[in-house]
Write a structure and sequence with these properties.
The complex is a heterotrimer of chains A (288), B (124) and C (219). Chain A is an alpha/beta fold. Chain A has helices at 42-49, 71-76, 93-100, 109-118, 132-143, 162-179, 191-196, 214-220, 256-263, 274-287; strands at 3-13, 18-27, 31-35, 57-62, 65-66, 78-81, 150-154, 182-187, 199-204, 207-213, 222-226, 239-245, 248-253, 268-270. Chain A is built from ten helices and 14 strands. In chain B, a hairpin with a 3-residue loop joins strand 2 and strand 3. The chains are: A alpha/beta (288), B mainly alpha (124), C mainly alpha (219). Chains in contact: A-B, A-C.
Chain lengths: 288, 124, 219
Amino acid sequence: MDKILQVQNLTKNFRDFKLDNVSFSMEKGFIMGFIGPNGAGKSTTIKLIMNLLKKDAGQVLVFGLDNIRHEKEIKNRIGFVYDENYYYEELTPKEMGRIIAPLYKNWDDKAFSHYIRRFELPLDRKIKDLSKGMKMKFSLAVALSHNAELLIMDEPTSGLDPIVRNELLDILTDISRKEDKGVFFSTHITSDLDKVADCITFIHEGRIIFSSAKDDILENYCLVKGAIGLIRDEDRGSFIGIKENQFGFEGLAQDRKKLRRMYGESIVIEKPTLEDIMLYFTRRNRNA
Amino acid sequence: MNIVISNSSEEPIYEQIARQIKNQIMKGDLKGGELLPSIRVLAKELQISVITTKRAYDELERDGYIEIVPGKGTFVSVQNKQLLREMRYKMVEEKLAEAVDAAKSIGLEQEELLNMLKILYEEE
Amino acid sequence: MLSLMLKDILLLKKTIVFSALYLVVMLFVFASLDNAASVFIICTVAITYVLTVSGCALDDKNKTDVILNSLPLSRSVVVGARYLMVLVYVMFGVVVYTLATWIVGMLNLIPNLYPVNLEEFLGAFLSISLLASIYLPLYFKFGYIKSKIYHFILFFGMFFGISFLASGITSGNPTLLRIAAFLSELSDGVIGTMIAGTALVMLAVSYGISLRIYRNREF
């Protein structure tokens, strides 16, 4: 299968933060969630992919092409949505559309009108008078109106209420599934991805913790609960982390079968959410 | 075709899907030659990952329940009646094996187990 | 490129209209004076400068560099559009002024009104080229807010500079007189070409600097 996005050993140094040797890749037609706590380096990575920041080392290939040497060609095939709306607040969606349309080789005016109508966006109202949800939908309408093969989104759902968020996710999955487009989607609201993501890349403090198929991750790890002190020391190695409260413990572990065998009915084993996984890994890195 | 998945079950989602489709094929709700939804449509409707649906379909294809024809779609395998009957036979055999295991683990005698079977059968 | 220029026009609709009105009003106010020519120069330079700086301000305020650089646009086009708009504004000033004098002339409201002649146009062109060549690299380097102070210095410097030059010539400053004498010996055509050439060279050098700055910027 073709890789639509390949990040290899990407490094960028800032004064008080370092994006360290970030590598991951993504295949065509899938939805990849890029998760991590605030400040982990998600936006930095995306800006490096879009060449808004200059890398110190490493390589980014989009559609198999180097993202600096073939910048313009790549950008013609990418739709982007950022968390902050950087469009001209004084203009209307219609005017904005007129300015952007000639810049894309494959602009599709019919698609643009279709999405404006579908998202119920007022064409002649100034962008500054649109709600956050509508601004986001406008960004999305633009991103979807030039036959882009890859959508890159940086926290597109932050600041949106759950209803609009759900709507947005629905639209994204619809498009990705029906039109075989790749969607690369960074967020710290992991519940968005629990269901629909195909792959997950987890970044923390500038480093990639893991990058694999979401099902594999959710099946390999399990949430274990039981009485305090139940887990023997030699089995603690299977745990990513254990939290103890007054009445018991909860932990994230691998090796579900082995634990079930050893502890039988004295433990509760549940499927973890991405948020659980993110929290436990974050805590572990912090305590290490 | 009806598929209902549980997010909180311990059974992996792809297995739930494969199991449900298998059952419907064996019961005859899904007929031989019938067109199944694509992995993408299934993923979209169930709101799960495409990798999951692909895995389910791969397993079903491996076990001979469905056929994936590139360019055309995914179809329920046309089973001849004999083969289908054999499959159902096997299913009953598996379930009985489970019952025997469970009985043995609590020390139930063969006699008692047979009695239980008789009662249950007659309940229908 | 054209898109970006259209963008500026759409954004500055109100300012553009206001500038046109300003030009016409100034025309009426100063037309009776002898130096009607300098009215044109000063007004056109003023409105071009204001429009250019306003355009920069709006881009900065909306932080649109992020979008502009995410679109399939090369940075040379983003920078180039700014410079081209300077030329567009100057032409706009010329057109408005010419139209105004023509209409006024037809209605015979004010006597002795000349449309713009080449000298005045070149004067305006040179002045605004100088201003833009200094301002734009500063804007690309520091952004609108930080370069605001240079903006003020330039704006007022321009007024004082022109009147200083004018008084220098009339009061008989020897250096200026020598330059003036040297220049008056050359034909009009050569002078014209020199002025236009200087202006274009200034803009080109400034463009080169701005481009270099912008290429190295990170967002």
